[in-house]
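Progress against Task 2.4 (sequence-to-structure conversion) is shown through the following example record, which the project officer requested during the mid-term review.
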Amino acid sequence: MKDKIEKLKALFEGTEDIFNNHPNTEIAQIELKRINEFKDFRISLLSESDRGSVLMAAAFIEDKITQLLETYMVQNKTIQKKIFDGNGALATFSSKIDIAFLLGLIPKNIYDDLGILRKLRNDFAHNAKSITFQTDYIKERCNLLQVVSKVALRDDTRAYFLRSMTTILTCINMKMDTFTQCQEEDNFDFTILDKGMEVIADILKK
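Structure tokens generated for the chain above:
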């Protein structure tokens, strides 16, 4: 495992220098932040046990889905806090996944894979027995993940899961770079109705 982590770190060496020389500083900093996030996420997953990697992936990706939704929505922190916290309408991972799909922020295959991740999280979080990616029903769940090719990973369930999670993270980040944020509507002008009633009253007088 140490070898894999060192190889990954080596792969990203020099990335900061490349972006520091980018002509557009703002874009460079955003992209560098995303690359470092990807690297740190991948290294964290590699460093964890099977149980730890599933729980960490679920927690991190739920936070990213929350960030995706909060960024897309009208920027009203009071209302956002009410729906995302406690018993709010979007307080659960499941509800966040559903609304992200219905708003067109994630495609169907990512939606399906997030549902599998949620089930895997529950499998590992609520089971005191020693289970791993080699446990039959865990392996079966992972085999249902769709976002990366199974062929390239040579039936390595753990590697397939880790690659799927980093792909999902990339998909979410790409969407955050491309959507148009919702804007608060102007208050409705009720004087329009009053004017309409005046016109009707004038017609009825004739």
